[in-house]
Amino acid sequence: MLEVVLSTGLNPIETYVSELAAQDQPLGGLFRATDFTAGVLAFTGGLLALLRLRSHPESRRFWSVTGWAGVTLFGAATAADAWLPLSCTPTADPVCAARETAGLVPATHQAHAVSSSLAMTGALVGIIALTVAARRYGILAPLAAHGPALVVLELIATVWTLAAIAMFTAGRGTWALGAGQRLQVLLVALWLGLLAWSVHKERRT
Length: 205
Description:
Layout: H1 2-5, H2 28-55, H3 62-83, H4 94-101, H5 108-137, H6 141-169, H7 177-204
Helix pairs in contact: 2-3, 3-5, 5-6, 6-7
């Protein structure tokens, strides 16, 4: 969201979200700090939920445990992203793209790809599993009501992003890679907000 109010010099339609935090970007430190903070908070929330489920056997059900494990993985991998930044911006800088293709970039590029993949995998597992849990177990009422729509939108955004990445890797342009990935991340954020509100309401009742 900071990209809306800050001048980053990167085209949000074409560039990876991760490029905002690249080492050669003037605001890279800020975006790495926000990534790390968000990741630690998500990891802590997921871990606390898992510990709570462990102490309440009656609530320890498959979809709930799987969902909170996904949120925990998402948080840990997002925090790791901040410590494994890209060194340059491959979608915006042809020299960087050429170096990446030739394998002349730091190993953090590959490590970042792994941590980013794990983060999105964890997010998808959490989004799907906890939404299923909310509907199947009659819990987290707001999530049960509105979660399915976000699941469908997130899956569409994920397919868009993966297809665009494949086209970029094949040298066929970016195919609005940045827009797809930003939509993907925004939907994860909206779902996390819905989850937090659902947990808050559940605790009050």
